[in-house]
Amino acid sequence: MAPAYKRILLKVSGEALAGDNSFGIEPQFLQEIARQIADAAKSGVQIAIVVGGGNIFRGMAGAADGTDRVTADLMGMLGTMINALALSSAISRQGVKSKPYSAASMPSVADTFTAREAKASLEEGYVVVLGGGTGNPFFTTDTASTLRAIELECDVVLKGTKVDGVYSEDPMQNPHATRYDTVSYDEVIGKNLRVMDTAAFALARDNNMPIIVYALNDEAGLAGVLSGTSRSTRVGKSN
Ligand code: UDP
């Protein structure tokens, strides 16, 4: 069966790489994520990945401890590069070509991201792994995911979380919260449903980029999301 999407943007949070730990990279989780990504790539879908860095450093936490926010965010962005190198290498070990890119110039580490070059790599069959977020402080890798998806003309953003979609309230706090199958950008923003930050949703809304929210721990993994068989929520235009 032909894949449902030609090109996707997958957000891999730092949390997903840390596995059961709160810090660093858990090799088993890294390998499992890389395997799922490689399998999806082998099925013919072009994959761009934006990696987070919360498993290494978060700017907000650094700023709270007294580091100025711009410096703290630079540290956070460097953390995402560590994850990008680890994930790109792990995908290559699964037998699929992968290339890391950095939003900030660090030529001895990775090529600097340009949409033109990343798109060419995608067309050549590389899984591109984008580190460094947007390259700017005061943003998150969620916003970077939406931005890169738009720049790279992806069909959709896939955002894995701890729960299987967007709920009317935080399901960890209220067990009676209900899950949406589809929800509009305006509702997610208006109700402050906090699955991604507001800037990410606003950018997606203004450029009509759909976002699918699914559970990272779903047994069917990425394949289940791509085939539409797993539970998830699609955030898009209102009907
Ligand atoms: N960051 C940034 N600009 C960006 C993306 C990320 O300054 O465009 C910094 C910010 O300090 C953030 C850290 O990098 O806390 C790690 O990214 P994020 O928190 O989005 O990672 P995740 O929660 O997905 O692991």
What's the short story on this structure?
This protein is α/β, with parallel strands linked by helices and 239 residues long. The protein is 39% helix and 18% strand.
Secondary structure layout:
Elements: E1 7-12, H1 14-18, H2 27-42, E2 46-51, H3 59-64, H4 69-93, E3 98-102, E4 111-112, H5 115-123, E5 127-131, H6 141-151, E6 156-161, E7 182-184, H7 185-190, H8 198-206, E8 211-215, H9 221-227, E9 232-236
Parallel strand pairs: 1-2, 1-6, 2-5, 3-4, 3-5, 6-8, 7-9
Antiparallel strand pairs: 8-9
Helix pairs in contact: 2-4, 2-9, 6-8
What does this molecule look like?
This protein has 239 residues and is α/β, with parallel strands linked by helices. The chain has a single domain (7-236), classed as Acetylglutamate kinase-like (Carbamate kinase). The chain has helices at residues 14-18, 27-42, 59-64, 69-93, 115-123, 141-151, 185-190, 198-206, 221-227, and strands at residues 7-12, 46-51, 98-102, 111-112, 127-131, 156-161, 182-184, 211-215, 232-236. Strands 4-3-5-2-1-6-8-9-7 form a nine-stranded mixed β-sheet, sandwiched between helices. The model has no long low-confidence stretch (mean pLDDT 95). Uridine-5'-diphosphate binds next to α1, α3, α4 and α6. Uridine-5'-diphosphate is lined by residues 13-15, 52-54, 58-60, 73, 76-77, 79-80, 133-134, 136-137, 139-142, 144.
